[in-house]
Amino acid sequence: MAFFDPPPAARGGLHAAATERNRGPILEILRRVLPPSGLVLEIASGTGQHVAFFGRELPALRWQPSDPSPRHLDSIRAWTVASGADNVAPPMQLDVEMAPWPLVRADAILNINMIHIAPWSAAEALFRGAAPLLPAAGVLFLYGPFKRDGQHTAESNARFDERLRGEDPRWGVRDLVDVEALAAAAGFGAPEVIAMPANNLSLVFHRGVGAPQSAND
Ligand SMILES: C[S@@+](CC[C@H](N)C(=O)[O-])C[C@H]1O[C@@H](n2cnc3c(N)ncnc32)[C@H](O)[C@@H]1O
Question: Distance between CA 163 and CA 22 in Å, rounded?
Answer without folding.
Answer: 21
